[in-house]
Specification:
Shape: globular
Oligomer: single chain
CATH class of one domain: Mainly Beta
CATH architecture of one domain: Beta Barrel
Helix content: under 10%
Strand order of the largest sheet: 6-5-4-7-8
Radius of gyration: 17 Å
Largest sheet: 5 strands, antiparallel
CATH topology of one domain: OB fold (Dihydrolipoamide Acetyltransferase, E2P)
Strand content: 35-45%
Number of strands: 8
Order of helices and strands: HEEEEEEEE
Structural class: mainly beta
Number of helices: 1
Distance between the termini: 40 Å
């Protein structure tokens, strides 16, 4: 199947690829074509950057009720993570019931199954975060 090969060979598929503004050096994830700070001056100056996937928790919350399709995961913890490179992203903290997450907790990216299309369909993976011990 050529589709499966396409997904395996997609550079951003199993990596955290961001963009860094060549003018102000600010890092963004997901990638952007233009820096919101520098605007037109950043056009053509955004460069790809491999992110380490490591960072620290800026804020967090534990979800106790959710949509029916997420009921197996209840409760789960969502956090705003500031990556080492400076970009801030939202992600789920895994392997923790929420009580172990603190502001300033160090985390790293893990890739986990997000879902699949039918029982024999394409499996979708994505990034989540786990605490660094």
């Amino acid at each position: 199947m050529p589709e499966a090969r396409f997904w395996r060979e997609n550079q951003a598929r199993y990596n955290m690829i961001g963009h860094k503004c060549g003018k102000c050096q600010k890092v963004y994830f997901p990638p952007r074509d233009m820096c919101p700070k520098c605007r037109r001056a950043s056009m053509g100056k955004m460069e790809k950057i491999q992110l380490t996937g490591k960072g620290s928790v800026v804020s967090h919350t534990t979800v106790h009720e959710g949509l029916p399709e997420f009921q197996m995961q209840i409760p789960y913890t969502m956090a705003i993570i500031e990556l080492e490179e400076g970009a801030r992203i939202t992600g789920q903290i895994v392997d923790c019931n929420g009580e172990c997450v603190k502001i300033g907790s160090e985390v790293e990216t893990v890739f986990r199954k997000l879902g699949e299309e039918g029982k024999s369909g394409i499996i979708h993976y994505g990034y989540k975060f786990k605490l660094i011990e």
